[in-house]
Amino acid sequence: MDHDTTHERRPAPDTRPVALTVAGSDSGGGAGIQADLATMGAHGAWGTSAVTSVTAQHTRGVESTHVLPPDEVAAQVDAVFDDFDVRAVKTGMLATAPVVETVHERLAARDVPVVVDPVMVATSGDRLLDREAESAYEDLVADATLVTPNADEAAVLTGVEPTDVESARDAAAGLLARGADAALVTGGHLDTDGVVDVLATADGVTVFERPRVGDAATHGSGCTLSAAIAANLARGDELTEAVESAVDFVTRAIRYHADVGENGAVNHHVAVRNEAAARETIAGVESVVDDLVAADASPLIPEVGTNVVGALPAAESVAETVAVDGRLASVHDGVRATGGVRFGASSHVARFLLSAREYDPTLRFACNCRFDESVADAVADLGWPSATYDRAEEPADASTMDWAGRSTFGAADETPVAVLDHGAHGKEPMCKLVAPDAGALSERVLELLDAVEG
Known about the structure:
Blueprint: E1 18-26, H1 32-42, E2 46-57, E3 62-67, H2 70-83, E4 86-91, H3 97-108, E5 114-116, H4 137-142, E6 146-147, H5 151-158, H6 165-177, E7 182-185, E8 195-201, E9 204-210, H7 221-234, H8 239-255, H9 270-276, H10 278-294, E10 308-311, E11 321-324, E12 328-331, E13 334-337, E14 341-343, H11 348-357, E15 365-370, H12 373-382, E16 386-389, H13 400-408, E17 418-421, E18 430-435, H14 438-453
Parallel strand pairs: 1-2, 1-4, 4-5, 5-6, 16-17
Antiparallel strand pairs: 2-3, 7-8, 8-9, 10-11, 10-15, 11-14, 12-13, 15-18, 17-18
Helix pairs in contact: 1-7, 2-3, 5-6, 7-8, 10-14, 11-13, 12-14
């Protein structure tokens, strides 16, 4: 088709809220300005910056720091506000008392929410703030919309050392008493089973709890959290909503961290990459369905039907899984799908897959098949790693799929390919297959079909 190139095309601008980060540069890209801008972009905000210092830094620590003159920092802040409609600001590494005072002076004159991340010590343990600058934070904290210290920073600012939820509440209350509108004491260092963040506002206290991630790469987590909150505020979110969304974002960014450098870093792009995988995940489920229909997998279809589920790479909920709307059913001339493929279409198999991913996050696809003695023999003949659970042993207060994941994947030395469910009263016995990709799942289902028919 020929296109008319004689006319001038009309622009179609992308309108985005603007956020400003006033922080140091991290040459390793995991923290500081680089993390802030990546995080703001991932939240749909336009990130602007005022660089306070330049660090020679990587995932292991900070090699050197060069602090910019306060006038240069002020000039950057002024330049941004002169041209952009800034809707929220976050501060990070400010390094020295003169810079802290300059930043406070510039921001105090602006009617815009300010998130203060009082960066004092890096995750690696390297100090990022002169001791003389600690007292300079008093005015910045007093005017803050939100202060986001970790336990160590909260202790410096308030004199209260958070070790558990109650002492974190006390530290947060201390920051409110110093003038801050709200305080979020982050709980990565607290002596709690999971990670607990405590948000205190004039309306009360909200506690956010989430499981700890073993061997977590947390480089840049504090910067990312405060930048995400600022971006959410710039978009118009209420404070508690902005914080809760940011906590969820950082939790995912830590679990699915970027494997870079020696120690790794939080993955600022995890949500964007997750969304980008949607088409591939849908296509994967469709390809498995097509393979089962083409092969006439009727001998493996249970009475309740078969579902095929695919999870996004960083899926954390059923809504982030793709499945057949309905199921695959046996009909007089073979197998057919009773509906199309969409997100959130499965509950049972999707929750099973999510449970399995708690122990092996590389698993992305699963399906359920008929289970009887012939299937058990076929699984054994194929030599697959397998696991079994008996619903009669399920604790009364347990979620079946969570319990099944713990008792199979959690207890296995090697990730099972097949999980055998003996069923219970009103629950049909089932064989569930898992795989890291759609092709592997199709291959495993067809191998099991051949073994059963053979």
